[in-house]
Amino acid sequence: MNLPCPSSAGAVISVTALSRHFGVQAALQEVSLYVPRGCVCGLVGENGAGKTTLIKHLLGLLRAQTGTVRVFGLDPVADDVAVLSRIGYLSETRDLPGWMRIDDLLRYTAAFYAGWDEGFANRLREQFALSPSVRVRTLSQGQLAKLGLLVAMAHRPELLLLDEPSSGLDPLVRREILEAIIRTVAEEGRTVLFSSHLLDEVERVSDHLAMMHQGRILFSGPLDQVKESHRRFIIRFEAAQARPPQLEGALCISGHGREWKVVSSGLSHLTTAHAASLGGVILEERMATLDEIFVARAKGGQPA
Amino acid sequence: MENRRGWIALGAGGLLCALGFRLVDPARHLRETLDALGGVSMGLAIFVTFILATISESNRRESSGLFPTRLFTLPVSTFTLALAPIAFGVLGVSVVYVVWARLLWPALGRMLPLDWPLLYLATAMACYQATLWALARLPKIRLLVVGTGGTLFAVGWLLFRDDFAGTTQLADWLGLPGRAAWCGLLWMLLLGALALGFMAVEAQRRGGWTRLGWWRWTWPKFSRRLFETLLDSLAPARRRLNSPQAAQLWFEWRRHGLLLPVATFGLLLIIMMPALWLSPLSADTTTLTVSWVLLMPLLLAFAFGQGFGKADLWSKQPAMSLFFATRPLSVEDRIGAKMKAGLLASVTSWLLVIILTPLWVCGCGDWESLARLWATATALYPGATLWLLPPLVVVCLILLTWRLLVGSLYVGFSARNWLFGVAACGVFAAVLGAPLTVLALNQQPDLPRKLLRVPSWLPWVLALLFSVKVGLAFIVAIWARRRGWLSPRALNRYLAIWMAVTASLFVTAWLVGPVQGWMKWSLAWLALLAMPLLRAAYAPVALARSRGR
Amino acid sequence: MLDSDLTGGVLVYYCINTVDYMHLQISTADGLPIYQQIFNQVRYLVAAGRWQEGEELPPIRVLAEQLAVNPNTVARAYLELERAGVVTKQPGSGTYVSKAGRGLTQREKNKILVRRVDSLLVEAQHLGVELDEVMRLVRERRALLLEKVRP
User: Fold this and answer.
1) Comparing C-alpha atoms, which of B549, B529, B536, B367 is closest to residue B463?
2) ipTM of the complex
3) pLDDT per position as a tens digit, A94-103
């Protein structure tokens, strides 16, 4: 179900068959990802799935061991300056220099970008209630995240890379950050790739979705297609089943006794027909939530 | 307990020593050699035991060094919690000592006593752990206290030796009855340390020392804030930094470059201020002070230079932080900014020295001995050279300082811990080697003369080194050029700088150098070798490789 | 627990719809795509007569920010609403509730209710409650709710 078009002509990010090993441990295995211009791509997966490693490849901080990485059609390792000056990046660790004052940090950062929008930066700063003379070290986690986002967005980059922008934050700050991202998206031509393990957030904000699990991309594609192609059933059988019934097209089956929850993809009519032939009655059918899809895919293990 | 690998290594070390000592025949070697062998191995083993027995939070990110918080969740009284690690450490160090005293030293032909050394080591261990916990919140002061205490303990055992003549004198002087009294003192220390350890752990379990709270919070913050405000005012970011290079230069200057002038100024004040009360100083003291002052920027630059190449001197990680790594700035601009900041730092420091020193000598020194030096120089050098020399020497000093700062750029930029380790070993060797050499020279008065007789092959070796260096630098530079890490402009610029600097060093060396032939040639070759060429060429490679691993 | 949960939900529903009917709610807990949730809720608001004919819908950006969802999603929901004839887009000014929007009322109401009745019936079958009992409960709850809402 690899929906994205491998015609990478219009793609801002195109990663092909990228693998990465740290020692014997494989961090990325045969990862391919295409993100078209103007799209918000959510990168989801559990901690350690390889999201940060993938983003570091996009920034040119890691060299591709096998496969290719292209951002704006350029190699981010060889053309680091050209690529980085068009990217806004918020790191997961939010490691802004603690000793700088906020105004120094903004001045320092502004010098690197031709498109730095002073007015926009000031507006964001006021909106986030960050006082210019405060040292970065004294900021709270939420303020740090906001400042990091400001620094990443104020030069109006063509590509915004956000690594876990809202992890570890309280709902209020998370909401503020989401709103800021949405405002950026609303402007034409901005492409956003953001990683998160909060599926709710991803479903709200993104229109493309890529799911990572243990260094592989389980599936990727437009969010609507992903959602529409996965269905969830509750099936009741006549007699209690000792082991999970084997159903065609089912990704994941859980439950016990007579009632079983089934998540299926694409071939849901096969699943229902098969279930009916085994004497099952469908009690409930609806679209699967992202959560269910992710669990089903991760348990299923095999990429689609 | 946790550090299983460490304990295994210690055990293996002990075994190795045991095997090694069996092979040694005590009769055939000098007593001193055997003692040194046993002493060093035992000292190392005890030192390692102390480190292994350290029980504190080893959270790297916070580096708090507190008592491990998770232990507080155990259903055990604080007394047990505090006592168990101390007892464990004491046990460990005792076992190590007994092993050495009863199994290893006899092979070397010596029997060590067991009574007082065990008490001594136990006290040291208890004091060590209690201090670690008690001062956990003040890491810098803790380091100081542990360092001082450790040195005291490392030397203090001499007091107990039978053959140490000072024991009785000191005991008499203190009005104490010899070793028994020292042992009594140890017992008191031990009990005090136990009590302190218990109190510290109890305090941490209950949320901190309440009495010390205000001090703990205000003092480090206040001093840090003062220092940062000072640096901020010395290196203000201009209203608008108008190019990436300017911004990076500001960053390097504010974060790394300023340290050298500030430290130089601070030390100048520390050295010169007391003289204001003691003035006028004698001629000899003046000369001594001035020579130290002139040496100081070089020494400081040597010390700072080890960390100057790091992406951020103060951070614990060797690698560049993600924020700085993702600024769009080319490899050569990053290196250029560091080099410029280094040059700025060395020029400023030397300006400070050159302006302040004459003022100080005028104020409270004595010109006489300096004047004598000048007279000697007048006799040595012809007129024109004499007037050319001082500015040349100053320029060379500035350049040497700069060289010391930027020489290890490739180590810092490579962000590899083992390179740091190797470089640190070099520094250790230099720092330890210097006093040892002085000691050796003291013992053998004819050695300097031997050393000064430069062998005739030395210039040839240096010339060979120089050509190897130039060749390797050429290869590395071409490599960097091919991969696009170096632009021709940057390459040419650095080459021009290198040539200018080397030429000035060469000229100075030629003019200053003693008139004898080999010596002069050696100095000249040294001047050619002084400026980093290979290392400077490798710096962009190191940075580019560490960025895109 | 189920029982109190259900009543709570209904009461909240009443409150939301009487006090602040502009308030759309997005939930990712049931698998419905977000654009469809917006679509359903706007259609419901129009069908229930809460949004009158000719009333302007919030601009896409404003609604997207308010709901913290992707603007493209809101745009898609508006597009579907326009296709369904619930709203009309007037180039250059905005999106308005269309004239035809009111005409759909009865069918729409039935459609919305049918889904709820379905889930109620499924639940009832689950619990093994007879249809008569369900009908009795419906009447009883209605009386209770009316009593609560009236003062």
Assistant:
1) B529
2) 0.86
3) 888 888 889 8
